[in-house]
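A.,

Following up on our hallway conversation. Structure tokens first:
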């Protein structure tokens, strides 16, 4: 395997290191799927904290100065803002970065392939269904995994007395 080029720890190199780590994490977390980000369980939080610690040295290298940390933070914030602006201006970029909503249940029938591909298990789906005031999958008209990882539920039969609520992560 070829060796990666060595990047030093000057302030410009800290910015470059930080940008590389940021881009890598965006790609890896995007591949991980919507549910991995939208609904943090305790194990997900632990992984996130450990990743943060693991990449810190990769971003600043030997530069442990205040300026090195500030440059890394400024680079992260700038890249984050730039990607958000780009996503807001370009539908294809937004689709790549955030994905698309995905139908999980249609007319009471669980779409097993979509559930599997999105990494949503039946327990998660049933919890979302209960959170929207329904008791069974058969009562669901539509269940949609949103781009932010939440699951929206539309009851199967329109009941004027039934109001759904959106459960946020």
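Then the amino acids I'd put at each of the 169 positions:
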């Amino acid at each position: 395997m070829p060796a990666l080029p060595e990047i030093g720890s000057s302030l410009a190199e800290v910015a470059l290191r930080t940008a590389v780590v940021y881009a890598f994490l965006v790609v890896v977390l995007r591949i991980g799927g919507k549910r991995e980000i939208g609904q943090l369980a305790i194990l997900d939080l632990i992984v996130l904290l450990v990743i943060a610690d693991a990449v810190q040295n990769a971003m600043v290298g030997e530069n442990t100065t205040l300026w090195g940390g500030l440059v890394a933070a400024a680079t992260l914030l700038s890249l984050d803002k730039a990607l958000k602006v780009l996503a807001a201006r370009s539908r294809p970029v937004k689709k790549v970065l955030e994905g698309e909503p995905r139908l999980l249940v249609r007319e009471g029938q669980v779409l097993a392939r979509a559930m599997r591909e999105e990494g949503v298990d039946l327990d998660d789906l049933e919890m979302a269904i209960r959170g929207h005031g329904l008791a069974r999958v058969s009562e669901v008209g539509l269940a949609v995994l949103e781009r932010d990882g939440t699951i929206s539920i539309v009851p199967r039969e329109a009941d004027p007395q039934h109001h759904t609520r959106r459960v946020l992560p």
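The first helix runs from residue 11 to 32. Curious whether your intuition agrees with the design.

B.
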